[in-house]
Specification:
The chain has one domain. 30% of the residues lie in helices and 38% in strands. The strands form three sheets. Strands 1-2-5-8 form a four-stranded mixed β-sheet. A two-stranded antiparallel sheet has the order 3-4. Strands 6-7 form a two-stranded antiparallel ribbon. By secondary structure, the protein is α/β, with parallel strands linked by helices.
Length: 107
């Protein structure tokens, strides 16, 4: 993981690096009321505080892997059988775009 504070971008080498940053490693049990008014439970996962803080700060995440499964599945992370959409994830070629932008800013 590489953090560029000037551009508010975090770069990841691959999906595994992003998962470690983004997804809490344990599942949690949640409750909801079903259509019959009964309480049911389901398993879910939480995003890490680091990921949620970065999203709140409008950080962009770049996964530098042309074969990223997260990007191939429209910015969805899956943990076991649970899937959630993630925000602000960009593909590997954005690295070049941000490098040019940084050169322009530093002129």
């Amino acid at each position: 993981m590489l953090i560029d504070n000037d551009l508010n971008v975090i770069y990841f080498d691959n999906d595994d690096d992003f998962y470690q940053f983004c997804v809490e490693p344990q599942l949690v049990s949640r409750e909801y009321t079903n259509n019959n008014g009964e309480i049911d439970q389901y398993l879910d996962f939480n995003f890490t505080p680091g990921y949620t803080d970065a999203i709140n700060n409008a950080t962009i995440f770049v996964i530098n892997d042309k074969d990223s499964q997260i990007l191939k599945h429209n910015n969805v992370v899956s943990y076991r059988t649970i899937s959630k959409k993630v925000d602000n994830v960009k593909p590997w070629y954005y690295t070049k775009i941000f490098e040019k932008k940084k050169k322009f800013i530093n002129c």
